[in-house]
Specification:
Elements (H helix, E strand, L loop, with lengths): L5 H15 L3 E5 L7 H18 L5 E4 L3 H9 L10 E4 L12 H12 L2 E2 L10 H7 L3 H10 L4 E4 L2 E2 H7 L4 H8 L5 E3 L2 E3 L5 E4 L9 H4 L2 E5 L6 H8 L6 E5 H9 L2
Helix pairs in contact: 1-11, 2-3, 3-4, 7-8, 10-11
The structure holds 6-O-phosphono-beta-D-fructofuranose.
């Protein structure tokens, strides 16, 4: 069922662009919920896209997650642009180490033969420590690079899935269960209309910073993420989506 012709794929891409109101969409065949190679294929296509967008001295901020890990694994060495720098978009947001933004950032930079900077911030973090940490000169310096990122690439998750995957306080999980939160990206949780309903307290990229970036690319697939993708894109923060056929089909049906 998931063996589409190239022409069918481009129709699907066009319809997703119209549905979400974005400039660019890449759809790969299949469903990454059930087929691992689909995630790898999304990673490959996203890496090719990124390679074309890079320019000298540009900074790329990345988030964590398994889809971003597939992108890091597919990153080619960059010969086309000098001085490219990778940074994690935000500090720790409760992921296991292999799926943390820091890990993915370092892996991507290594494959790309580029530079990187990391953010060392414990999480979760209390208000007082937060204020102290953001004043640390080394943290401050990395944060100022992150806040001026030219290209941002991030995963999107289903809110409940992410709340459970992280050490989320129980009352919050209960609140999310009632459907308050639909999607998650960068440690922010969004409702069905794309409004922020909760954010994990950590340092790094703020939603407002996305407006200043040249390009904001989301990479997320699987039928199970269609609602989350639709919710995240409601407020139009991104211009590019890399997804798969299963998510794309649900998205255009509005399910
Ligand atoms: O926790 C990092 C993160 O990028 C989240 O913001 C996002 O919801 C999630 O990972 C996506 O993870 P995956 O690609 O494994 O579904």
């Amino acid at each position: 069922a998931f063996m589409l012709e190239a022409s069918e794929i481009s129709v699907l891409e066009q319809r997703v662009r119209e549905t979400l109101g974005i400039d660019n969409c890449i759809v790969v065949p299949g469903n990454s919920d059930t087929q691992d190679w689909v995630k790898q294929e999304m990673g490959k296509r996203c890496a090719q896209l990124l390679e074309k967008m890079l320019h000298p001295n540009c900074t790329v901020a990345v988030t964590g997650g398994t889809t971003m890990a597939a992108l890091a694994a597919a990153m080619p060495p960059i010969h086309t642009a000098e001085n490219v720098m990778f940074v994690p978009a935000r500090g720790g947001i409760g992921e296991q180490v292999e799926n943390e933004a820091n890990t993915i950032c370092a892996a991507m930079a290594k494959r790309a033969k580029s530079q990187y900077r990391l953010l060392y911030v414990p999480d979760p973090i209390g208000e007082e420590s937060y204020q102290t940490i953001i004043e640390e000169p080394s943290v401050k310096e990395v944060l100022s690079i992150i806040n001026r990122s030219d290209i941002v690439i991030h995963g999107i998750g289903d809110a409940m899935t992410m709340a459970k995957r992280r050490r989320t306080p129980e009352p919050l999980v209960e609140q999310f269960k009632s459907g308050v939160a639909v999607s998650e990206a960068f440690g922010y949780y969004f409702d069905a209309e794309g409004n922020v309903v909760h954010r994990v307290r950590t340092v790094g990229l703020q939603l407002e910073d996305l407006d200043k970036a040249e390009s904001v690319i989301a990479i997320a697939g699987g039928a199970s993420k269609a609602r989350a993708i639709a919710s995240y894109f409601k407020l139009g923060r991104n211009n590019i989506l890399v997804t798969d056929e299963a998510a794309a089909n649900q998205l255009i049906k509005g399910e």
